[in-house]
Each structure stands twice: as C-alpha cells, then as structure tokens.
Amino acid sequence: MNGPQSDAEPDLPPLLADRAAYKVRLEAILPTVVTGTTDSCNDIAAAAAFTLIYVGAVGRQRLARPSMVTQMDSQTAARGATADRLAWHRAAERGKRAIEDLTSAWGLADRRPWYADNSREGIRDETFRTWSANGALLVDESVSTTSSKSRYSLDLEFAALFDPALSGDDLDQAIATWQNRHLTPTGRLRARRSRELQRTGSAVTVRLPGGGTRDLLVGPSSDILKGVIEDFAQYMLEPAVVFISQSGEKVNVIDQKLLEELRLPVDQQQFLPDALIADLHPDRDEFWFVEVDATGGPIHEERKGQFLAWAASQGLDLDRCRFLTAFASRTHPQAKRALPVLARGTYAWFNDEPDALLSWGDLPDGQI
C-alpha cells in the first residue's frame, strides 16, 4: 500500500543510533566477500537502510524511492518520533519542496541533505539492485524505474536484523539464519523468481524477430523500444536483436550463441546503447545502435563517437554501423529538444509513425 498514512498507525520500526551503526550491520549481513560488491554495505547503502527504516518502508508498506535517501539529513534523522517520521514520509512522497516546507516548519535551519540529487541513479542501479538480487529489497514492478512514484521497501526479515534490541549472540544467530536462507544459490534463485512473479502482468512483452518474446521493465522507454523491435526492425532483411540494456538491468542478452558467433563480449561497464540490432542479411550486414529518448539521451556527436569507439574495439566495420534515436512522437517535447543536437549521419524514428524514418546527414557531392 502506498500513499498518505494516518499518524494513528502502529509504531514504526525502532532506529539504530546513526548511519555508522547501519553500516556495521550491513557489513555483517551483506558483506562484500559474499555479494561481490561494496554496493551492498557502503556508506550510501547505510544511508539507504536508515532512510527506509526511518519512513517504515518495510514489507511493501509506506514505499520509498531513491530521492528520499538523497533528501535525508542529520537534523531530520534525529527526529525519531513516529508522528515526525510519518509526516516526513508524506512530504517526501510529494517532493523536495514539500520536505523543505515541513523541515522549515520544524525550525530546522541550514539543513544539509546527505547526498546530491544526482546520486539517485547510483542508489537505484547499484545499492537497490544488489539488495534485490539477494532478497533484501522488495520492488513494486508495476511502477516504472523512471516514475516519480515510490516502489521500494525492505524485506520484513531483512529489516528485522536492524532492531536495536538484537545484540551479541542473538544478533549473530539472526544474521546467520537470514544469510542461510538468502545468500545461498537457492536463496538467490528464490529472490529472482519472486521478482519475476512481481513482473507478471506489468512487464512490457516484446515479440522478437524470428520468434520468441522478452519482457522489458514497465515504462515509456520500454513502450518505444517495443515499437523499434516489433515495427522498425521488420524493415530489415534479416533482423536479430543482440542485446537490450535497461536501467537496473544493464544488459539483457537475447541470444548468447549469437553473441559468441559475432565474437562480441558484452561488458556491462561499457557505455552501451539501449539496444543493438543486427541485420544479418549478406546484402546488409549492418549493426544498428538504438537509443530510446523518452526523457533524455539522444545520439549526439559525443555519444556517436563512443559507440564508434566500441565498434572499432570489437572489429566491426564502421561503415556498416547505423545509429537510431527513437522517440514517442515528432510532437513529443523530448523530440523537439533533441532534434537540434542529433549527430550527423544518424536517424530518428517515431513510435506513432512506424513506417517513416528521418535521416540527418550530409548532402551528397554534386547535384541532389
């Protein structure tokens, strides 16, 4: 359940002393040696754990979003009364301005949020992704990753490990029990299946060229990418989707065998397009680098250069690389903002006019 809550609700989970205490617990519960990344237990993870418990985002109640972590500050954190915590969550649901109005009414001067606003994506794509993969975080998959609505809460059993009343041998035993259930191969598989069940009925299902389907995360970008794969790609002679890259799931490999035959290792740290589509017909032999621009991110000159550098490093023929920015519509505000910065030698495609393609390139030498 998400939305305004009553101050008459049961007490929120008790809080540990400070962020440092949450980091100590995280290092014991989700250590780097087990998760393979510091994202599970670093400073920003500690801030996230504190904030989600502060607002009571536990077991799909009073959901949270990454911006709540970036907007939390030490003065607010010290206000531990249930009424204050619930009031802050309601304000945070409305946005930054509402938080400022509330904290100003509380008389909090010189409030300094713990993190910059642009840290939100790192929290979502690194900390939250790692927690989710290990069964520590619940995600409302019906809400898009780009939506302003809240979609995250801590697993009940995971949140219980931060109870200040747990200490010594009791804490060690509780952590060991949770780890045995969640940090084993079968535990991770249970977490994955749980996420897949949550996505059922809310995912954007795409029909792939040549048969089969693939589910994309719900949201406007996925709607456009679905159009590219189902409508635009049909104009290729022999289309094959090589991979898809989405927020929170950097690379969704469509055909591992195809990747191996193409000798294209996928490095998730690379600056990848939203999709790579190959036209395998001998008369074409082209690779289409696709960027979906629903909220920002067209193929401008710098981005085109990055894709060309990657293509060169993979031994691709640069003359056979094509670059497509896909939009919802020619009348969409994002298209109007992006068109002036599109790189030369690229194309634009619009989801509501699937049978047309806009080319932006140099005029040929001589007569037109």
Produce a short descriptive summary:
With 368 residues, this protein is of the alpha+beta class.
Total DSSP helices: 15
Total beta strands: 11
CATH class of the largest domain: Mainly Alpha
CATH architecture term of the largest domain: Orthogonal Bundle
Q: Any idea what the radius of gyration is?
A: 24 Å
Q: SSE string, helix = H, strand = E?
A: HHHHHHHHEEHHHEEHEEHEEHEHEE
Main sheet summary: 7 strands, mixed
| Overall spatial form | elongated
Question: Could you characterize the architecture of this molecule?
Answer:
The chain has 368 residues and is an alpha+beta fold. It folds into two domains: 181 residues, Arc Repressor Mutant, subunit A (Orthogonal Bundle), CATH 1.10.10; 157 residues, 3-Layer(aba) Sandwich (Trna Endonuclease, Chain: A, domain 1). It is 40% helix and 15% strand. The protein contains 15 helices and eleven strands. The strands form three sheets. Strands 6-5-7-8-9-10-11 form a seven-stranded mixed β-sheet, sandwiched between helices. A two-stranded antiparallel sheet has the order 1-2. A hairpin with a 7-residue loop joins β10 and β11. The longest helix is centred in the middle third of the chain and has 15 residues. The chain is elongated and about 80 Å long. It starts with 18 loop residues before the first helix and ends in an 8-residue tail after the last strand.
